[in-house]
Amino acid sequence: MIDAAHTAREPRLRLGMVGGGRDAFIGAVHRIAARIDDQYELVAGCFSSNPEKALASAADLGAARAYTSFAEMASREARRRDGIDAVAIVTPNHMHAPVALQFLKRGIHVICDKPLTATLAEAKKLAKAAEASGVVFALTHNYTGYPMVRQAKAMISNGDLGDLRLVNVEYAQDWLTEAVDNKQADWRTDPARSGAGGSTGDIGTHAFNLANFVTGLTLDTLAADLTAFVPGRRVDDNGHVLMRYRGGAKGMLWCSQVAPGNENGLRLRVYGTKGGLEWSQEDPNYLWFTPFGEPKRLITRGGAGSGPEAGRVSRIPPGHPEGYLEGFATIYQEAARAIRAAKAGEPVPPGTTFPGLKEGLEGVAFVDACVRSSARNGAWVGLNL
Known about the structure:
9-stranded mixed sheet; Rossmann fold
């Protein structure tokens, strides 16, 4: 079970937040996740680009220090003896890089919502700055924090599936089946704020990251067919992607936000020479394992067959639902381990695993490649890393 308690020798890390103010869904998710394992305390924030809303949100959330400029926040917090240890960035995609750069150059650790940036050029610039700064940079691909995803990764790493041949991953939703007029849809369908990819950037990056994380495979080339089915929509709302991995494995990725009857249908299936695995986000505590020629087996979180990799990021007894918020919390917990090690000048504790710059770059490069391929009628292209 995950060690959730902070000790007298390890006070809570001081957390700041940029974005995520009043009525912001993802900001609330991050705040809950940061507190689940009792590792962080929210002390400062620039919660909105609207000054009035930024101050009101800080009052709502009980943040001791409120800012109306993220650049001012970075500068002032870096000068305080009790300044923030880390900042959570929960803005629309186009603001990830400008915000992160302000904190990176002042040596403040960063926990950023995905995707890394809106464009590949921004991602490369940000990655270079983060590497030069030496700070911890965590990207909240929260599905990598699910216990049974960790279980699947361990089983594949241990050779339970043999040589991998097939990877099928999909993330289907239906909330953009028609034109939608709300805050979430507004920025997610605006290429100036979301980036060139619509469903590919919003949920396709989650599917791509999940497949990479679990299998350990590296993409070689892809062929994509992206479509904006809703008239007037400027970014894709559906994507079909064929993938060729180094070593010979083949994959298919489908992401859609116009598939009626689907809510958050993230599903992964992996097949090798010795067997297969199946996992669904909407039933996250179950992992199906089928050794070739044998009956299908159900492995449950905390149940028989579930190993230490899953157990280390589990919080509650078997049979109780554990999922979305806890997945985010695992990323925050793992980042806390790395941040504490950095503050102490010590190596990161063994087993600490969270998405970072490498995964962020790959995700943005994936979107870029999908857009380029689709524009060339599904031509095979590589990632421009």
